[in-house]
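Annex B. Sample input.
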Amino acid sequence: MAEARDGSLHRRMQNYFEMFGLAPAYALEPAQLERAYHEIQARIHPDRFADAGDAERRASMQWTTRVNEAYRTLKDPALRAGYLLKLHGVDVALETNTAMPAEFLMRQLEQREALELAAAERDAGALERMRAALRIEKRELDEALAEHIDARHDYAHAADLVRKLMFLHKLDAEIDAAFETIEG
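Annex B, continued. Sample output.
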């Protein structure tokens, strides 16, 4: 993009972390990301370019789209981890590599069966207990990801953890849907 009117945009930003002025790391400070996001949005938002030429307006829209995509990626732990691994040449292969430890898969099956039962019985208490246990499991995975990505640089193992985290995100969404069914 051509530079913004105030000259504050770089022509090329190599990665999402650089875009927000953050060190490329799994563990990041959410408030720092939020602050950087709002600062960039204030400079590139299409409303600032309403009176500009077509090329500037299009460029603003493109940058706004890219910044929003970067923000969503860095804000979500699983997406951030996958993005970091990609930067290090590791493909998480979510679509093609579904191999998981048998113990983990069995626990997933058990959790989904418990979820189906709780939803069928409209048992909000059981759903809440599942959600609390899931939060603990996600927090533990989050800590493990930070350790394997930021400290050990063990990207292959981190890819396995990202796939596990994606399973847990899906279960979390299913719990949300069950709550909506009960409350709706």
